[in-house]
């Protein structure tokens, strides 16, 4: 099982944001409905029931994903009617909500489709995304990405495929401030995968703390 992930960070998160994000993901081929049963499935993130699955309605999923009463919620998306991936939405620091996609377990073709679809979705103006991290192999899964993207303070021991942060975060981070970056408003984007992530749009370019995969994600503080 791979630990690869795509984390995105959002301000002002509400039920409407959850509905918008879900609708945009569906338009990109990532759907919260089992291709055979037609069920929408929640995944428990809490011990001792971690990994337990429960069917819910779409309205229930949207209500829970708005995090009005919860600190986090997990559910499944299916890629083009094929393999599924775990999504975790959680409250991070400073009023920011993190959306974590566990893409590492997908087969290579579906993984690339999912990464591209998520990148396009979180980059739309309809969902206020302040930054994201792409790490297909999960080598930086132990990094405090909340500390990097939200606060600009955590240190990077290794590098993901791409990390996007606000300009003021990049300018104040001791490592990012000396690195080459591509400016793609509203972010400064770092990493070797930047050209491939934006290839369709014609851009070019010169890693919350947590774990991905099917084990329960670690909690952050």
Low-confidence stretches: 202-215
Strand content: 25-35%
Mean model confidence by pLDDT: 86
Could you say which overall geometry the principal axes of the C-alpha atoms support?
Answer: globular
For the CA atoms, what is the radius of gyration?
16 Å
Largest sheet strand order: 2-5-6-7-1-8-9-11-10
Number of helices: 6
Which properties best describe this structure?
alpha+beta; two-stranded antiparallel sheet; 11 strands; 25% strand; nine-stranded antiparallel sheet; 221 residues; 6 helices
Short description:
With 221 residues, this protein is α+β, with helices and mostly antiparallel strands. 24% of the residues lie in helices and 25% in strands.
Fold and architecture overview:
The chain has 221 residues and is of the alpha+beta class. It has six helices and eleven strands. The chain has helices spanning 15-27, 58-65, 108-122, 145-151, 167-172, 194-197, and strands at 5-10, 30-31, 40-43, 53-56, 72-79, 84-91, 97-101, 129-135, 162-166, 182-184, 187-190. The strands form two sheets. The chain has a nine-stranded antiparallel beta sheet, with helices on both faces. A two-stranded antiparallel sheet has the order 3-4. A hairpin with a 4-residue loop joins strand 5 and strand 6. The chain is globular, with a radius of gyration of 16 Å.
């Amino acid at each position: 099982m791979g630990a690869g992930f795509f984390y995105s960070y959002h301000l002002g998160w509400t039920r409407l944001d959850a509905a918008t994000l879900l609708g945009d993901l569906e338009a990109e081929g990532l759907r919260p409905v089992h291709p055979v049963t037609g069920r929408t499935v929640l995944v428990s993130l809490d011990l001792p029931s971690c990994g337990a699955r429960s069917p819910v309605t779409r309205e229930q999923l949207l209500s829970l994903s708005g995090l009005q009463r919860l600190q986090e919620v997990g559910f499944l998306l299916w890629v083009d009617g094929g393999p599924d991936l775990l999504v975790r939405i959680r409250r991070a620091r400073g009023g920011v909500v993190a959306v974590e996609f566990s893409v590492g377990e997908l087969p290579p073709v579906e993984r690339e489709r999912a990464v591209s679809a998520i990148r396009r979705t979180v980059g739309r103006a309809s969902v206020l995304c302040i930054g994201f991290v792409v790490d297909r192999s999960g080598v930086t899964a132990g990094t405090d990405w909340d500390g990097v993207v939200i606060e600009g303070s955590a240190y990077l021991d290794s590098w993901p495929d791409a990390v996007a942060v606000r300009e003021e975060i990049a300018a104040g981070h001791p490592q990012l401030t000396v690195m080459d970056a591509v400016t793609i408003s509203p972010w400064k984007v770092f990493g070797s995968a930047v050209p491939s992530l934006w290839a369709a749009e014609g851009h070019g370019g010169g890693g919350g703390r947590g774990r991905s995969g099917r084990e329960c994600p670690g909690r952050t503080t």
